[in-house]
Amino acid sequence: MRLETVAAGNFSHALRVGGRISATQGGEQTIAATADGIVAFSAATEAEGAAIRAGQTIATISSERLRDGDPAQKAKIAYEAAEKEYKRAEKLAAEHIIATRELEEATLRYETARVAYRAQAAQMIRGGVNVASPMGGFLKNRLVRPGEYVTMGTPIATVTQSRRLLLRAEVPQKYHKELAEITSARFKPAYDTDMHHTDRLNGRLVACGQTASDNGGFLPVTFEFDNVGNFVSGAYAEVFLLTRNRPNTISVPLSAVTEQQGIHYVYVADPDEEEAYLQREVEIGQNNGERVEIKKGLSVGEKVVTRGAYQIKLAASSTMIPEGHTH
Residues 193-240: pLDDT tens digits? Predict the structure, then answer.
């Protein structure tokens, strides 16, 4: 149970629209495991957003205790064996002891083993291999946990050359007069349950389009923010475009408001009885994805339930407690 004292303060109205996350100019690359084994990340990759150099080791894959042995060591042995067989076949072919076809087969086996070995040779260490980033940039995220078993080709991390992403919101034309009031945005990607705020991601408003797009006639509003965490480029998002603050406005967290048959209620602490709550009908206004404006029904100084309101509602509906009063 959590309570909040009602106060009049600044409230930022929000336009609820759809949007999409996209990458800024700059490459992004997924780094895959180069062998089977247990992953251990380097100290340089402990923090998302860390700078990465081209060729820098970001992880080590240990195959030392695997039942099938160390794949890198097996590749070396296979290469050395194929090389000996190729040289022998080359000599015998020159003396016309074996057919040209046999030499060609030995050559193919040698080239195949050589490519497989050289792909790992530069990164081989005792008991495993290092995994290096093919390009410089910043660590976007780690895709597996330290100590996890991976197979060759498993994506283990993503490196991006841009630390920034774009959030493009599509605003209906009926809101065109409010575009000049927009200051920041909250957004929730379709794959996520968390609400993110551009201000907390070092974000900034890039542009408010004054020309409607060909696709649906929406007005684009674009933000730029730090590319840290598990943001997926190309993902759709629910966007709340925040406008300039309005002073002297009563608002409460969205979690404080319950709804029944189209009527909105909050639960207010009873000033005359400890741990008792009054159900109060309220008239709500705009919400910004976190808080909702209360136009009528609450007074400054009252204590409203902001966590646990739904549980109080369920308890009240399952007992014979008179309407408007519950424990």
Answer: 899 999 999 999 999 887 877 667 899 999 999 988 778 888 999 999
State the Cα angle at 36 between 31 and 38, rounded to 5°: 85
Domains observed in the chain: 2-11+247-326 (2.40.420.20), 14-25+162-246 (2.40.30.170), 27-70+127-160 (2.40.50.100), 73-121 (no CATH)
The dihedral of CA 202, 208, 212, 214: what is its sign? Answer: negative
Cα 135 from Cα 142, distance rounded (Å): 16
> Cβ atoms within 10 A of the Cβ of 155, count?
12
3-state secondary structure 168-232: EEEECHHHHHHHHHEEEEEEEECCCCCCEEHHHHCCEEEEECCCCCCCCCCEEEEEEEECCCCCC
pLDDT in tens, 49-81: 788 999 999 999 987 766 666 666 777 888 899
Q: In the chain, where does DSSP find H-type helix?
A: 71-94, 100-121, 309-317
CA distance 168 to 236: 10
Q: Is the distance from CB of 284 to CB of 257 less than 8 angstroms?
A: yes
